[in-house]
Amino acid sequence: MRNATINGYLVVRKPRVGTNYRGVDRQPWDRVERDHFDGVLPPDESRLWKHSWSMNQRGFSMPTCTDRADAERLYRYSCHGGDPVQLIAIHSPYLGEVYGRASWTESDAVSIGFDVVPVGEWSLLCAVEPLLETSASQTARFLNTTGLLDDAASAPLVEREYRLLAAQGIVDDFAPPGTGLPVESLEVFEFPSL
Fold this sequence. Notes:
The protein is an alpha+beta fold. It has one domain (4-190). Helices cover 28% and strands 19% of the residues. It has six helices and six strands. It has a four-stranded antiparallel beta sheet. Strands 1-4 form a two-stranded antiparallel ribbon.
C-alpha cells in the first residue's frame, strides 16, 4: 500500500443506508459547526474550528483541517453527539495551486476514489446520485463501489453531464463555463483504523 498524499482532513457523516456515495459532501463538520453557532462548542474545539475556517485553511467550499491531532480531536467531539461520523482526508489540487498549501503523506489513509467539486460549490457526484438508477446516466459507468471516480480523468465527463441535467432543470446549476470557476477532482481517503 502506498503512502497517501493529502492536504486536508474533514469530519463527515457516515454514508446513509442505501447509498454508495462516500465523498466529501456528507454534512461536513455538522455537529462542530452547529455547536459553534449555538455558542456551546468548548473553547479548545472552538479555537480549532475557527482556525479551520480561516481563509488560509479553507479549501474548495468546505473548511479543512491541516493537523491530524486537531482533526481527530474534532472527530472525537463529533462522535459524542451520537451522529455516525468519520474522519476522512482529501488531496485538493486547488488548495495547493491557489493557497500554496503543502501536501504530506499518511501511511494509514486508503484512497477510495475521486469526488468532483466546483470550487465554492457542492459535489456533483453527490447531487446526481439519486438519479443514477433512474436515468440513462453516463456518469454511473465511471463510478466505483464508493460512488466516486476511480481516476480524475473522468471529471470533465461528469461535469458535462451535470450541466446537461442542470439545463433541463433536473439539478441545480452552478457558475457557467467560462467564468473561471474551477471544477476539481478531489482524491478522498478513509482511515480504516478509526
